[in-house]
């Protein structure tokens, strides 16, 4: 006699209904490159004051302690960020007939690199390119200066002078742009009008030069003012070249750049924070 049918007997689930084992997400290894990438993200978002090891770790989704397997601390992280600025920078072979133009190209490239990231000029000002990876950049710049006929004492100082100008100019630009973001005036034209109104009210018998030069002091674009500053430095360096040097004979020792002296071009002042980002082109060997 057969046993009675049990409707409550356990029925195995069908194959297509079985729960599948969850596949753990692939963990991307933490590397120095990823840490520096994350540090730049934090810098652009929070600025220099907001950059911290904790913020970088949060950006990467790791514990702060994990960062210390790759960097000793924030100081080394800043140094790594500074070194990253020079990635892809190619300083050409020295050309005595083009040494001035090569210096201009170096200055413009340096400024563009600094402006690519918020507050990067502030970080750059605290570092020098005297590391094994960056010394070749310094060597090639010195070669350009000497090929142009600069006396050794001048050539030895020229790089630091130019780099200090690039970093200082860019740092000032970033400060004014930050101030503009928090100012009551919404455009540079409004800020410019306020400044001009103040200068116009000064007694001319006490401030004749300020009144005469006010429009030029606060006129022109960042780019035009930067180019003029670089040109002033280059002409000063060129004045030290001995008359008989080939660079002088080729006409590159005292010649001016075609845009020199045009700092007053345009109507967007030296702190024209309304200039499009792509036009705010900035490193340097501080």
Automatic annotation (TrEMBL):
What is the designated name of this protein?
Answer: TetR/AcrR family transcriptional regulator
From which domain of life does this come?
Bacteria
Q: What organism does the record attribute this protein to? A: Sphaerisporangium dianthi
Could you tell me where the Basic and acidic residues compositional bias lies?
Answer: 264-278
Keywords of the record: DNA-binding, Repressor, Transcription, Transcription regulation
Keyword Transcription regulation belongs to the record? yes
Q: Where is this region: Disordered?
A: 1-20, 247-286
DNA-binding region of this protein: 52-71
């Amino acid at each position: 006699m057969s046993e009675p049918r049990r409707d409550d007997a356990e029925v195995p689930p069908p194959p297509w209904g079985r729960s599948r084992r969850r596949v753990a997400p692939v963990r991307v290894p933490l590397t120095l490159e990823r840490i520096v990438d994350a540090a730049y993200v934090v810098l652009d978002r929070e600025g220099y004051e907001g950059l911290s090891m904790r913020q970088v770790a949060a950006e990467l989704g790791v514990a702060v302690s994990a960062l210390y397997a790759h960097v000793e601390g924030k100081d080394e992280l800043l140094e790594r960020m500074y070194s990253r600025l020079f990635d892809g920078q190619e300083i050409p072979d020295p050309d005595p007939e083009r040494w001035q133009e090569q210096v201009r190209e170096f200055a413009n490239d340096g400024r563009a690199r600094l402006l690519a990231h918020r507050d990067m000029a502030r970080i750059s000002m605290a570092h020098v390119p005297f590391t094994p990876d960056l010394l070749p950049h310094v060597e090639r710049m010195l070669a350009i200066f000497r090929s142009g006929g600069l006396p050794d004492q001048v050539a030895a100082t020229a790089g630091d002078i130019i780099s200090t100008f690039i970093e200082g100019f860019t740092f000032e630009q970033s400060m004014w742009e930050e101030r503009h973001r928090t100012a009551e005036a919404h455009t540079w034209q409004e800020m410019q009008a306020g400044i001009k109104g103040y200068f116009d009210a000064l007694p001319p018998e006490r401030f004749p030069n300020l009144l005469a030069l006010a429009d030029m002091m606060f006129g022109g674009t960042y780019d035009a003012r930067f180019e003029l500053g670089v040109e002033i430095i280059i002409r000063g360096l060129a004045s030290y070249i001995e008359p008989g040097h080939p660079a002088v004979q080729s006409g590159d020792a005292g010649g001016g750049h075609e845009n020199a002296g045009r700092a007053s071009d345009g109507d967007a002042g030296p702190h024209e924070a309304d200039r499009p980002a792509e036009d705010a082109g900035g490193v340097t060997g501080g």
